[in-house]
Design brief:
The chain is α/β, with parallel strands linked by helices. About 40% of the residues lie in helices and about 25% in strands. The strands form four sheets. The protein has a nine-stranded mixed β-sheet, sandwiched between helices. It has a four-stranded mixed β-sheet with strand order 1-2-3-4, with helices on one face. Helix 9 links the parallel strand 9 and strand 10. It is globular.
Length: about 450
Amino acid sequence: MFTTNCQFLENELLDVVRLFKRRPETLSHSFRFQEGVFHNDFCVDGEEYSFQDREQVRDELEFKRFERRFAKLRLYGILSEKYGEEMPWGALTGIRPTKLAYSEQERGGDFKRLFSQMRVCEENVALVESILKTQEGIYEKRDGNTDLFVSIPFCPTKCAYCSFITAPIDKTRAFLPDYLNALDKELAAAKTLVGNLRSIYVGGGTPFALDTPDLERVLKGIAPIFTAQPTAEYTVEAGRPDVFSEDKLRLLKDYGVTRICINPQSFSDETLKKIGRKHTEADVYRAFDLSKKYDFSINVDLIAGLEDERIETFVQSVEKAVKTGADNITVHCLSLKSGAKLKEENSYLENDFISDMVASSREILTKAGYLPYYMYRQKYQVGNHENVGWTKPQKACVYNIDIMEETADNLAVGANAISKRVFTEKGLIQRFASQKDLKTYIASVDEIIEKKAKFFQ
């Protein structure tokens, strides 16, 4: 049972509790602010704790920021000592670490000192520092910058760990003609809403699950936006290797696409079968062989902590990804959310090797000359770790940096697409979400277009 007299902290404190495998049976929290002092009192399983932290605040936004920070840190300290556990990111929850680091620097502070106070481990402080350095020359906060996201929510099959609102295309193909009609409408309307276009990202789902004529229709819809600002980075998350073909890759090149993603998640045939993939390690190499002649920058996605994988298997996947010569390699840590088969069936046992997997991936990729360039964290992430994108020098993906640091407007079209307006001077971010369900999205597209026009104007 949990109670607090501070409603805006309820979810924040529960996020701290969820970090630990063991949880208190009863937890109460009481907060008051008096003469510049933040008073946080806790009662955990009958034991009482009181803390006072002093900090000058300039406005309500800062007041809430500091109260979140102090309350979470103090509760984390209690539970860490009680259960004998330290988390790799300490008391940091619910925020992108790099975004917090930039924010602290902008207000004249030292993020390394702050992260140390929040009990972040030294290795992760160094990781954040390295990411900020890699982002130099790409990171830009300027009102009017825009990234375009196009949602293709179809896949060949749904993986066991996936919680995205996607569906096997063979079961949803009947919706495809109407979905493409709706997407055509949205893209036509989006042209007047684009500011300074930094990047285009066609994601999913698995865009290459579409047949070639349908894929070309999507690219034709994007073409007027891209040709107006042709220096923008252009990425298609081609996706799973079993749907790659020569004609689809040639099509991307013809329409000016510069980057693609090949997403094996693992190079182990045994693991791929367990997670519901219909491709093999050999298919991954075939996808690379097909792609090489078109000179795309290629990203490879891997997942640490997949079902029954041991560290040796994961290390082999990282090493094999390096050998492909991919410009970017993203290492995700498994996150099981509602909607994932493994979550719903309650059949997943947390991988005890996850911390060693993360450490090994950092060592291998660093030795191979890759630099960490973006990072984000998710709830319910195995081992309370993170997802990190690694890049060869000068090959970082602009879209990934913009979207993770929330420094540019994100004009998102399609089902389950979430648009963002970023007001740099005001320090404000607004969101507009389109309907998730295909049938509802298709029926609502005219209303979505009208509302989105107002949102971006």
